[in-house]
Design goal:
Length: about 180
């Protein structure tokens, strides 16, 4: 109700201490969503880390999150988190994106699409900052590895490749990554 009533400061004052002591993962996620949405660029790193960790490990909360549809709408967990992250500036996201990139090789194939969406929104958009170039190269190389390991990934995510102008062949993606050195 705080968010709807314009009582952002009151919400932050109540939710922030609750976040520190809460142990239930779903409740922590919900608190983090509201706190990040309310504070945007001033969001606490722990709140952002909760969103990013959930994005990386979405399967652990997906069923519980889906059970909340009457209260939160029809979006999927990953879409919900991406919508919150979308409102943050590239500078804020860039500080945290390296942790997602580092986890890509360990994530199952079905979980890659929302992560690549989050990463590409940050690094490959027109708002990407020059100091993010090394991260962009890492992302492209990770995508090339995914394409090489699972050619069906391209078929499943064809629109995604088109939206970000990413080639669909691993060698061409690696060439694009190499061009980031120039």
């Amino acid at each position: 109700m705080y968010a709807f009533n314009g009582e952002t400061e009151k919400m932050i004052a109540r939710f922030s201490p609750a976040f520190k002591t809460e142990i239930d993962a779903l409740v922590r996620l919900i608190l983090a969503v509201y706190l990040v949405a309310a504070t945007k660029e001033e969001a606490d790193e722990r709140w952002l880390a909760t969103l990013l960790t959930t994005l990386v490990n979405a399967s652990t909360l997906r069923d519980d999150f889906d059970n909340m549809k009457p209260f939160r709408g029809e979006s999927f967990l990953e879409e919900y988190i991406l919508a919150i992250l979308h409102d943050l500036t590239p500078e804020v996201l860039a500080q945290h994106i390296a942790s997602i990139i580092a986890q890509l090789p360990a994530i199952s194939g079905s979980e890659h699409a929302p992560l690549f969406e989050a990463i590409c929104t940050i690094l490959l958009s027109g708002n990407a900052l020059p100091y993010m170039e090394p991260l962009t190269k890492k992302v492209l190389l990770a995508i090339a590895d995914m394409v090489e390991k699972g050619p069906d990934f391209v078929d499943k995510e064809e629109d995604w490749f088109k939206n970000y102008c990413i080639p669909t062949h691993a060698d061409h993606i690696r060439d694009l990554a190499a061009s980031k050195d120039n």
